[in-house]
Amino acid sequence: MEEGTVQKGKVAMVFNVANDEDSRATLSDDLKVNFVNGDEIAVFDGISTDPNKFIVQNATGNSATISGTVSEGAQDFKAVYPFSAAVGIQEGVLTINIPSAQVIPAGKNIDPSALVSIATASAGTTLLFKNAVSLLKFTLSTNDVNFVCIKSNSGEPLSGNCSIE
Length: 165
Fold this sequence. Notes:
By secondary structure, the protein is an all-beta fold.
């Protein structure tokens, strides 16, 4: 981050990040999770209720560094990947959003916005991401399918906002 670009009341911060489980939407051939440079991660700093946008840099497989700004004096952090899934935080409880429509990009095996993961850390430590959702894998016996709808047994929500403590 260039000097002079940090807003008043904020400080620049860099975190090391890693994935503890398959918590990233771009899975390699060996099913290990990989960060991608330019990914956006929401970091809540315990002072502001708004997420701070951090950008993935120096991605090497399932680890990377992220940089952004946080409120001055912040010491404890909660992070959400991807940034778009972060709805908010109140009294330490995260609210995330699982999209109801998921589009798998060409050449991928999952929608990046659907694989939400979270991490908690103190300043100077690594944000170790863990899945906040589960995956469902299925195989189609035909190639002409353009849409799949999945429903729960008893009407339980499979998407939308949910809270994580």
